[in-house]
Amino acid sequence: MLGKNRCIYPGEKVLLAFSGGPTSSSMLRQVQEGLNREAAKKLRFKPGIIYIDEGAVCGRTLDEREKTCRQVEAILQASGFPYHLVFLEEVFDLPASVLNSLSHRPADQAHSYKEAVADFTRWRQQCEKKEGAATSLEDRLAECSLQGCAWKERLAVLDTSSFPASHTELSRLFGAVKSLTAKEELLQTLRTHLILHVARRNGYSKVMVGDSCTRVSVKLLTNLCLGRGAFLAMDTGFSDSRHGDILILRPMREYPAKEIIFYNYLFGVPTIFTPGLGTKASDRASIHLLIESFLCKLQSEFPSTVSTVYRTGEKLSAAPREVDSGVPTAPAQCLLCLCPLDTNVEDGSSLQSMLLSEQLCPRPPAENCCETGRTQAGCCGRPPVVGDSSQLLPLLCYGCRLTVKELVSVQGKVCATRRAPASADAKVCSCSQDWAQGKVARSLSHHTFTRRLSASDAGLR
Amino acid sequence: MENATGKRAAPLSVQLEFGGGAELLFDGVRKHQVNLPNQPEPWNVRHLLVWIKENLLKERPELFVQGDSVRPGILVLINDADWELMGNLDYELQDQDHVVFISTLHGG
User: Renumbered to this chain, where is the cross-link Glycyl lysine isopeptide (Gly-Lys) (interchain with K-? in acceptor proteins) (chain B) (predicted)?
Assistant: First the structure.
């Protein structure tokens, strides 16, 4: 798959996203084997591994998380590659730049692979020279934070004093989201941001994720249901270039989960099972789980289901709206998933009519309260929290709007009902507002940044 | 074989293994060495699943067994081979067989 697509250059640093699950474990094993293979087929990139501990979101205790981290570390050490263990809590420490989609090395499609490789090596030599000279703050930062070896201290830090804020913040943030569907979407977004950040910090230019054929098919249908149909090609395709400087690759997307599991079983590939958000939930708990069980059931009776869905999805390609990117204004991007916005469509689209009907018949706030059965005085009197949502929503794509809307509405509800520990509720509100506002601020800084960039560009000309 | 002739099946000892998250439904224990009691018919996988459901499963049986088969998405290996090659539910268990259940489902 990698050879066919020829998108990784020799000597390039590639980050493998490792979750401990079967697909990413076998991806790791195959990269290891590929690096040891005879010259003709040998893989020639420099791999690094990232593991993100999401225990805080899934309600696991620190002991459990530490145990898992130790298991993961053992596997990663055995692989002999450099690795990064990251906690999901660190997503709050991310700088605004994560949301910038830089493209310092525009991918030129016209180039042949050989030219591209030559370009790449030249570019790398330049970088190495620069790196040799610079002992900038960033380098030191990269060394001290986000390094894999110090994870125990960092976990301890999370446990004890100085970072409990981000831990509680995170669990509150996820607590504020009602449905499992939105939780999974949110988790996925935050995870991607972290991976991107680590990749940029440490100079990786490609990220490989372990999405199997089965997972890709599930994702395809799920995203369709979640209103992310416009980005199917990006979300499920072999390479995902939405982040500009960092390419996300899905090298495992041709292998069905069954083959992968048999491979792991027969070759003794170690995997680690970590309970996730959907563990032990019924198959109707979220859209993701529902689609997955739907596909699995269909697959057991019609064995070509998954491959048919996969093949159909493969025919999608990212819409080349970048053709007119000669205009200096950067194309508007969703704040969360960094896809080009799909919301600036012409009149007559279903989004427009949905917005119109929302405007015409605003949902009475009382409905919110009665859903939970808490009909408390004062809960309906409070105006719905629209302040931050109206700021935030225009910056998001349709799919992310749905997720954030839920975040915001639940937050409003929590505020309104004023349940027993009032302070805790206030915290929920403030933290998700902070989070939202932080994102808004980031986006604003991002916008001013790009504007300045284009202005200076114009000045140079 | 004695089983094939339809005589009373002798008690069997089989090794069961659960993975990919399926072990969570069995108190997190991956490997079980179990002795299947005497019964008039020969033991096949269909009976084994019923027996597992009644004797081993700790919680949420619907996440492991659906209908008279395993939940779609859980793979079964009998002696390191896909059970679809061995006759699925109708495979007759032999003494010292090794049966593995691995969940491919997200989050187990």
Answer: 108
The burial of A459, by beta-carbon neighbours within 10 Å (0-12 exposed, 13-18 middle, 19 or more buried), is given as exposed
For A258, phi and psi rounded to 5 degrees? -65, -45
Å from B7 to nearest chain A CA?
33
Q: What is the pLDDT of residue A392?
A: 72
Q: What are the tokens at A242? A: 């939405």
Contact A260, A214 (CB under 8 A): no
Contact yes or no for A98/A197 (Cβ under 8 A): yes
Tokens representing residue A228 in the block? 């992310």
Residue type (1 letter), B96: Q
Alpha-carbon gap, residue A187 to A304, rounded angstroms: 31
Q: Of A415, A357, A361, which Cα lies nearest the Cα of A386? A: A415
A39: its two tokens:
């010259």
- A-B CB pairs within 8 A amount to 69
**Interface confidence (ipTM) of the complex:** 0.86
Of residues B20, B23, B71, nearest to A261 (C-beta): B20
Q: Give pLDDT, residue A454.
A: 37
Q: Contact, A20 vs A72, CB < 8 A? A: yes
pLDDT score of A398 more than 60: yes
The continuous run of DSSP H or E covering A313 comes out as: helix A305-314
Assess contact for A236 and A219: CB atoms under 8 A: yes
B73 interface with A at CB cutoff 8 Å: yes
The whole-angstrom distance between residue A240's C-alpha and the CA centroid of its chain comes to 12
Which of A253, A271, A146 is CA-nearest to residue A196? A146
Structure tokens at A170: 């995170």
